[in-house]
Design goal:
alpha+beta, DUF6697, 4-stranded antiparallel β-sheet, DUF6697 domain-containing protein, extended, 29% helix
Amino acid sequence: MDIDIRESEPDTDNEPPAKRCRLIMDAVEVPSIASVRIRAEVERQEIHRKLELLRNPIVKKPKDTPTLSLDSVRERLRSIGYEVYPIDLENTILDVTVRRDFMSKEYGGNPQDTYPKIGSAFVARTGKSRFSYLNLLYNPHCPEIPGAPGLLFDVKCSGEPNDSGGDQVKEEEGKPHGAGGNEDEPRGPAPPLTLDEWKQQSSAVRKNWAKQIAKKRWGLSIRADITLRRQLGRKPTDAEKKAALKSKNAFKTVTPEEISSALDRREVIVVVSTLKCVGYKADFQRDLAAKIPFFVPPPRKAAGKGKKGKNTNHRKAAPVVKGQKRKRMEPESDSDDEDSDSTSEEEEEIVYRPRGTRSRPIVNTPVASTVRTTGVKFSPHHFPAATASTFDSILSSRYTSIPCCAARAKSVAWKGI
């Protein structure tokens, strides 16, 4: 049998196509400068939007307070984040604010100290021993709403360690702006104010800080350091400064000008710490909301014996008008006697001679030269063509139709021109 060899050979023309190879390129995309700037600006605007949400529109900040730009605040808060701690509490209770005198009465402590010392009796009764009341005059970037992060300002001598370490915790209980239940807010170190940031503050802010450091108790360490530098001619050692602080000297001889110079030379710096909320005592805030409506503020203390009260019956001296004679002042009466037309014999009549204008020329007719009223003086230029009879009819109407005149005329002087 004849066999065709060509039919037994495999057909190579119908082979399946070869599979495509997947190529993987290992490379790094180098972004352009324009794309980097656009991405940074978008991120910056998003963070600024978050920072705006941390502000409380009800809180009114003083004018003479140090402020930082949003970029400076953003960089210092970056390490702890910009998110608000979630609090499961109704707004009617969460937004309740309290007073310092209320907190002092219920939980103890000096109503004016930032970190008041609580008496043992209050601690035994309430179980709370640490409170802080941050003043917006010195801490304008502190938390304004419950659970929000913030910044804490303080002053220290250069070279001293920052006391606000990350391992320390403080209770933000009973804040005057309503964040009374913030349980724990760990403090973290942040870059201090640079020399440029300090000099960018207004002169009123810098003077106020120097003035407060010179007289407040929390400025004792600064005043001691400046005094020792002045006496020793060098920076004091730690042992020398500790010995000075143990003495009873308050170092009140340090002037605000010396403190301002120390701040400008960076011998004294404004340190910054971050505050992050990690818990919230809802029960404590509920107690505050339940007690504050029944609080009756104590009456204000009366003025001391050495202080004289303001004399409400004291009359100010009448201003002396140049070119006029001084008139004798008449004592004011408690009752208004509008029906009396009698004039004092000692009262002098002032004669006014108008020069006239183009729109109001002088008319040679008898006119009232001056109508003297209680607090108002009428001159002839108001009525250039008025005669004596015309003024008699006007005076009888009790000035109901005369502008700027509120009382009956005391006297009328007639004089022809």
